[in-house]
């Protein structure tokens, strides 16, 4: 009798705890590239099952994600623009930045390959050929991590594409998927992260022309937002999610996410 | 004792206990519309009871005179003296039936219900009023699907619903068939016989002869002639009135 | 390239299979836009009625502003609401950003001027017809407004439907203040934007077709309201 009551109480307490956790939800400011790849659709149910925490993802460009986070409109930041992320932490908005995973960028182009870059590994060389041949190139032209990476690569290739803005160099000012749609629509080369490309469904006659250069490495970081700057932050739940992403379970889950048998993201969180 | 108290209470609530509106005294009534002088120093006296018919050529200002007397528009100059009562109170104790009835977008009964409710009257009277104007069988019909004659009778019932002491009618039968004209005249006469003061504008001399106790003939922005019906119709004194009556009779 | 036919087939199979995610998206769209329409009517109708009936200094300026606000771009409304509801904004403490409530607020702001301006037109026409009769009957201003609202109910219903049509079809405002969060703030238009950006044009088109059917339904409703009104001589 006594045991029965005790176990009933235990069940009730457990249920109440689960219900409490169910009510918890956090907002992650993240990038379109991660969201469009379907990674979150794979990871979040696993995490929610384990923790009971509902994760809501706002997918915008890296720049806007950081701006939103600076307005305290989120609990966690998951983006890919290391210098900006470090500035975010230095300004006191984030508690700590940790490497989470990486994927890589590729240049995709039409079957005709007007600039003749197919198979090249040297990304700066490929960009120079595109510029020299005035072959069409579609750029994000926004404040995203992908765009920042692209700008860095042009600079290393000693090309100023902005001088050709509106001619062969087309800035869409849109997300990765929209830029791919636009680029494919006008037969332009596009620099895209591999994850978005693999999961993109409107490829038409496009294929990867340039890949494998270590300069096209795309590092993602995770940053819990600092409650000292943003008192509304759900510190515990956000930290729980960050810890899970960086844990063996989270890292394995990231590696397990595949489309058509291809792994999209490569976990590289520092080992404890 | 209690019977006396009840009687006193009822008597106090009755309009008869209010100060009378009539006789009406109008002096120097002037109305400008833009550059046009519609009424030019008009004088008029109306007695306590009966039916006054207002006649005059088109543009003589008959409609505007009714609206002035009813308090819907303000004169440019002159006085309208309803026994010293202020305009808002005067309008409230009168009703005006327009040439073209403006009916609400609801049933015939709904039109009466609305006015009875808005004016704090007994809503149980709707059926009686509809019956009085011969529209009992149309109670649930949309008012705006009624024929011209039916619509005007409904407008008349609505005017009577507020128990007016003075009832103005502005050519209410202007474009109606003879049967409807007679029905409306009968209702108006019944109201007059109950003591409602009637002021009726018409172009139809036959109708004027049937209804009028006295006739007001407007000409040149003034009352050209105001005479008892029995004196007016056989021998109008004012030349314009004579021409008007003669012209009508000739046609 | 996907054909319209493929998209149509996909749309049909999604609807017929009762896809739960799709149902959730459609229901949220309807909930947000219907609520916004209801609130916009509560705010816009009295304003429309007031401006229709009252004569005051600066009325023509108010009319111009009302009519101009009808064309407010959704993204501008979204941005303004974002700035207010952001944690860094004056109303950030409410914690409403990225919730359906924020989307309702944005759509309400978007369509209230539409409801106000269109109802002003409807009620002013009606008032012109009734005004003298009402003065003769000595109706109070409140009684007059009540009568106008009731007699204009069919026309006002089509005004409300016009507002709803605008709300349910806009994407600019809800994507900024809602964030297009899956299972929380994702509505039809933001889902279409997302699927397009993922290159899944067939799914985007399928959602677009469903939206189109809702728009058709709204217009059919407007038409049947007009017919009902005509039948009851409410024209």
From TrEMBL, chain A:
Gene3D superfamilies from the UniProt entry: Periplasmic binding protein-like II (3.40.190.10)
Domain of life: Bacteria
Keywords: Signal
KW Signal (keyword) present: yes
Signal sequence region: 1-21
Protein name, as recorded: Tungstate transport system substrate-binding protein
Residues in PBP domain copies: 21-248
From TrEMBL, chain B:
One Gene Ontology molecular-function label: ATP hydrolysis activity
Gene3D superfamilies assigned to the protein according to its UniProt record, in alphabetical order: P-loop containing nucleotide triphosphate hydrolases
Keywords, ordered alphabetically: ATP-binding, Nucleotide-binding, Transport
InterPro entries in alphabetical order: AAA+_ATPase, ABC_transporter-like_ATP-bd, ABC_transporter-like_CS, P-loop_NTPase
Alphabetized Pfam families for the sequence: ABC_tran
Domain ABC transporter: 24-245
The protein's name: Tungstate transport system ATP-binding protein
Naturally occurring in which organism (per UniProt): Loktanella atrilutea
From TrEMBL, chain C:
Pfam family, one: BPD_transp_1
Compartments where found: Cell membrane
Origin: domain of life: Bacteria
Keyword Coiled coil among record annotations: no
InterPro entries: ABC_perm_TupB-like (IPR049783), MetI-like (IPR000515), MetI-like_sf (IPR035906)
CDD domains: TM_PBP2 (cd06261)
Broad class of the protein's primary localization: membrane
Membrane topology: Multi-pass membrane protein
GO BP field: transmembrane transport
A GO cellular-component term linked to this record: plasma membrane
TM segment ranges: 33-54, 61-85, 97-118, 154-181, 201-222
Family of this protein: Belongs to the binding-protein-dependent transport system permease family.
Name the record gives this protein: Tungstate transport system permease protein
Organism expressing this protein natively: Loktanella atrilutea
